[in-house]
Every structure is written in structure tokens, then in C-alpha cells.
Amino acid sequence: MVSNAVKQSQEEVIAALKRLRAGHGDDAEYKKLRKDLPAEWPC
User: How far is 10 from 16, CA to CA, in rounded Å?
Assistant: First the structure.
């Protein structure tokens, strides 16, 4: 699990991913990388 690998709780990892989405959601590279993940993962 990602949270174990980075030594953070699952909630901390999800919060970090939400911050990335908020800050980079309009970025073309972010969109390209994000489209390779399932839409529901993890948030």
C-alpha cells in the first residue's frame, strides 16, 4: 500500500493527492498521467 511505503496514514496520502489535484488539475502533464489511473482512484 502506498501509505506504508511513504510512512504516512492513508488519510495523509489522500489529502496530499487532493492537494496535487487542486494545484495541478489544469496541467497537461498531470492530466496525461492521471488518465492512466482508474477514475475512482483514490479520490
Answer: 10
Q: In one letter, which amino acid is 41?
A: W
Reported as a single tens digit per residue, the pLDDT across 13-24 is 889 989 999 999
Q: Which is nearest to 31 in space by CA: 39, 4, 1, 42?
A: 39
- Please state, in angstroms and rounded to a whole number, the distance separating the CA atoms of residues 16 and 19: 5
Reduced to 3 states (helix: H, G, I; strand: E, B; else coil), residue 37 is coil
Residue 37 neighbours by CB distance under 10 Å: 9
Global model pTM greater than 0.85: no
